[in-house]
Fold:
Amino acid sequence: MKIADMNWMQVEAYLQHDDRCLLPIGCTEQHAALSLAVDAILAERVAVEAAEPLGVPVFPVLPFGITPSFMSYPGTVTLKMETMLRVVTDLLDSLDHQGFRRILIVNGHGGNQPVAALVAEWMAAHPRTRVRLHNWWNAPRTLAYVKSIDPQSAHASWMENLPWTRLPGVTQPPGRKAPVDYQRYAVLPPDAARALAGDGNFGGAYERPDAEVLEMWRIAVEETRALIEGPWA
Structure:
């Protein structure tokens, strides 16, 4: 259930019998012909669908993340790493103060990985509260399914091309794209990175049949739900 659909009294009542919650974090960045909000859309949706049968609340997604290398693509917004870590720290402090003791951060953006180190540091100072960072797209079963279909699938390819990340009236390019040279890309400033990555797809087919894409999504929801259920000890 979404926090947006609850009032404070309902949250207070919930905390009398459960202390779990989900905090999705994403990004606003280029995804080739897909929505700029792909990472935020998918992080929040997988969290909501996973938590709904369990009655665990999901907080609104943090829509901005760490993505400096995409800054030459209009519409991309980045946070400094220090800012991101301070924001997540404030969010965890707030949830801990309210009485949430088991917090699953559902991450939709690879550039947010510094949050993993923050979580470990934060828990050391808050031993009564457990926090997990879950990168939904590369959880073991989800990633294995993706790679079994298309080993070269990467950023902005079919694995992020779901019915709710497509844009009306926008047609995906045909075929597939050769993988971007990551070793070169990793050391380039934004303008040169854009020149290398072109439309922004990092490799693999632009689209696959919906049956395959939705099967990937089903697996991702199941893996996320399993983490909510625990164990948390």
